[in-house]
Amino acid sequence: MPVLSVRHLKKYFPVTQGVLLRQKGWVYAVDDVSFDVNQGETLGIVGESGCGKTTLGRCIIGLYTPTHGQVLVHGNDVSSLDRAQKKALSLKIQMIFQDPFESLDSRQTIEQILKEKYVIHKKAGRGIKEEMTGLLGRVGLAEDSFAKFPHEFSGGQRQRIGIARAISLNPDIIVCDEPVSALDVSVQSKILNLLLELQQELGLTYVFISHDLSVVKHISDRIVVMYLGKVVEMGPASEVYGAPRHPYTLALLSAVPIPDPEETRERITLQGEIPSVEHPPAGCRFHTRCRYVQKICKTTEPQLADCGTGTGHVNACHFDGRLREAGGA
Ligand code: SF4
């Protein structure tokens, strides 16, 4: 059984106007998203800003209530649990936030920050100090960090504190929301390696959200590509990177730098703005920017279909790369 399942998840936010806050529409932030994540796996979620990936992460962690659909943790539908069950479940699923400075209370010492979760979940018994010391060591911080405040640390060290807090109560799943995008490139790889080490050591399952495809490639087993609230491609990382099917994935990948100076790749520049999630285009949501667009794309929405590789690689395009191979429309 998967550790985490997302089933037909939708999250719509009302758009209001005037002093009476009359509702005039919806923002379709996440629109019918489904996937499973297995024990010890890392599922990367990529897409441009505004594609719904952070909203999806917040629905998974319970910060947002889905408009429709289910989040199942170990097969239990989170929405059907009572308050006590939800609190118990919240131990099993944690989040690492993008901005380590914003997510840590600047008025609290590191000891207070780490202790807070133990207190909330009534686990602050004897031996807690030793446990917290062990946590600091695990994320590469010295014991004298306890008495310091967040501003006394570098960005990378603050993210280490965020990671220590996330793993403090032995979760099964961690949703990592752009955990390295606010850090220097030299620090990013150290934090990614720390996450990989902890995953091996503790058997953690990650949902890793990022706009940076090279970062996601480094850490993910499988990848979900999102565009305007929809999944457009999903599959093993090696296939999504090595043989992308969807024109949007292809365009995103074309912008990733290649380490080999001998190798060249066509850079695909996406034309036009991302359409509004309040008024998504009819048919294929990507059709206003797709270089292979055909008549059917403007009226009929393509569904995710198996690519036939036998690996669960799916793609939502009427032509599944056939127009591309034929040299374009
Ligand atoms: Fe492009 Fe049409 Fe495929 Fe959408 S369905 S990605 S518009 S070719």
Which descriptor suits the 3D outline?
globular
- Kindly report the average pLDDT value: 90
How does the helix and strand content classify structurally? alpha/beta
Could you give the distance between the termini? 43 Å
Low-pLDDT stretches are none
Write the element-wise H/E pattern from the N-terminal end onward: EEEHEEHEHHHEHEHEEHHEEH
**Hetero groups bound?**
iron/sulfur cluster
Notes on the protein architecture:
The chain is of the alpha/beta class and 329 residues long. The protein has a domain at 246-329. Helix content is 29%, strand content 23%. The protein is built from ten helices and twelve strands. Strand 7, helix 6 and strand 8 form a beta-alpha-beta unit. Helix 5 (155-167) runs parallel beside helix 6. The mean pLDDT is 90. Bound molecules: iron/sulfur cluster (SF4). Iron/sulfur cluster binds at residues 246-247, 284, 286-287, 290, 292-294, 297, 302, 317-319, 323.
